[in-house]
Amino acid sequence: MADYTFLTLIEVIGTIAFAISGIRLAAYRNFDWFGAYTVGLVTAIGGGTLRDILLDIPVFWMQTPLYLGVTGISLAVVILFRKMLVSNNRMLFIFDTLGLALFVVIGIQKTLAAGYPMWVAIVMGVITGSFGGVLRDILINEQPLFFRKDIYATACIGGGLVYWLAGLLGSGPIGCQLACAIVIIVLRMCALRWNWHLPVLSMAVTPDKK
Amino acid sequence: MADYTFLTLIEVIGTIAFAISGIRLAAYRNFDWFGAYTVGLVTAIGGGTLRDILLDIPVFWMQTPLYLGVTGISLAVVILFRKMLVSNNRMLFIFDTLGLALFVVIGIQKTLAAGYPMWVAIVMGVITGSFGGVLRDILINEQPLFFRKDIYATACIGGGLVYWLAGLLGSGPIGCQLACAIVIIVLRMCALRWNWHLPVLSMAVTPDKK
Amino acid sequence: MADYTFLTLIEVIGTIAFAISGIRLAAYRNFDWFGAYTVGLVTAIGGGTLRDILLDIPVFWMQTPLYLGVTGISLAVVILFRKMLVSNNRMLFIFDTLGLALFVVIGIQKTLAAGYPMWVAIVMGVITGSFGGVLRDILINEQPLFFRKDIYATACIGGGLVYWLAGLLGSGPIGCQLACAIVIIVLRMCALRWNWHLPVLSMAVTPDKK
User: Fold this and answer.
1) Bridge-partner residues for B200, per DSSP?
2) Alpha-carbon dihedral angle through residues B17, B19, B25, B26, given to the nearest 10 degrees
3) pTM
4) Which residues are within 8 A (CB) of A139 and not within 5 positions of it... i.e. 6 or more apart?
5) Within 13 Å and on the Cβ side, how many CA atoms surround C104?
6) Min distance A183 CA to chain B CA atoms (Å)
7) pLDDT of residue A203 exceeding 70
8) Which residue of B has its CA nearest to A143?
9) Interface pTM (ipTM) of the complex?
10) Would you call C38 an interface residue with chain A, using a CB distance cutoff of 8 Å?
11) Per-residue pLDDT averaged across A158-173, rounded?
12) Exposed / middle / buried, residue C156 (Cβ in 10 Å: 0-12, 13-18, 19+)
């Protein structure tokens, strides 16, 4: 029960972080309030929704109006503080990274609780953390950042593997969750700091000399 | 039973309206017949499909070939009467609005029947009414109209709230459904007539004076 | 049991064919390795995933790590042999057609096994065969080829009808499956050879003479 409350708390924080990121992008496109709310909501709950559908468990945001309400608050925050949010990319990066780490942990936790093996849990962690952003990019008709941007999904996988290793080494769930979240946050910060990225898969044929 | 038949009837009318709207847009893009059929079908059944998956109830169009057949008839109508349909935006607006109102009513009805609270039913009403159109816009690779166009989704929410209020005031299901549908149709017509829209969420920073 | 093994085998071959087709397209867009892997995976398992969600049966790729592994091998193949793959459109067409035929057969088979009637099975065959490619095109932000390209989906429907007819004529499952796959392959090859396509649905109004 205490564990459940804790998971809900970090899910709410992650929801706010992701909703703000979605609403902000919608604002750049001059969406109306409802459109911006929808993009924020989809960004925040899209990953968890796909996870719950794939696991065939009740969809989390349909059990309590909490997540719809939290997204509404996020919209109000963006409307009130838009000037501050425009100029502060660093703060948004922190929010987004925190949301990512928390969502991956929750995705793994729920999948294991549903009785699936660890490799499915890692996949669901990645989906929970990143599918909302992919949906957001599809809705605003942009090529999903996911496929080119730094090591977003790779960080999720790294965190998932650490969760698994920590469990093998005898850690309890809280320890696994903490280790997973920390690794994701550190990986993304390092990637930003030193400009890490995966190799690009290029089909470019060497042009024949003229 | 009578109620069920009535719901099926309005679902069929809504299906035709939405299928024609999808097929017409596909035709502007020179899709082939099958592509146009698919876009029409997705527009018509997309919202209800997502609703049924989220509610974890059997997907409605897999229970009877009715909806696939009705979409086929819609395609034939567009092929035969394309000239008339090109020049008649007003008639399509009426069809689309009617379809929207009917689909929202059905979404609310089915969600309440599945035992969910009213706020979930309103969300499902909005999804049933508008998700098909969002899918259509994604398939033809346009930015979804949903996020900018008049008060489409807002009208759905308005209708949903009226459904809820009518129930609180002691109305039976038929009364609630009628009130909901009428409010949606009136709201959309007023929005068209007086150019109502929601405030746009703009991030534009006041440009510094040069 | 033997039948089950056989179905798994053709599902794996289809997965490789579709994964390579997705990864190759991602490579043209300079996706990083993980992005390319994801596009390949979505192309390969997208159709079957939607089918399993609609049928409300366990999602196939969550039951065994086979499909994720096979997609990884496909990525390695593309990385190692990219030069060969660039210049060989014919081989990819064959792979893609084979994958299509196998996936349609599997979609029909699983839907019938879940107790649905033949018309639902044909729809699921089309979805299994073509939805992955639609998702792929959405992810790389292209207008889905599906809606314009030769007789892709039409070939699936043709195969499905032949499956049904073969059953009516007394053939066992293996016979139906073979007939279905052969018809799809032959239809696509004929379409390529003689440039068959469905009529385009055009809304173009005859321009008034100036």
Assistant:
1) A32
2) -160
3) 0.88
4) A38, A39, A42, B134, B138, B144, B147
5) 33
6) 33
7) no
8) B141
9) 0.84
10) yes
11) 92
12) buried
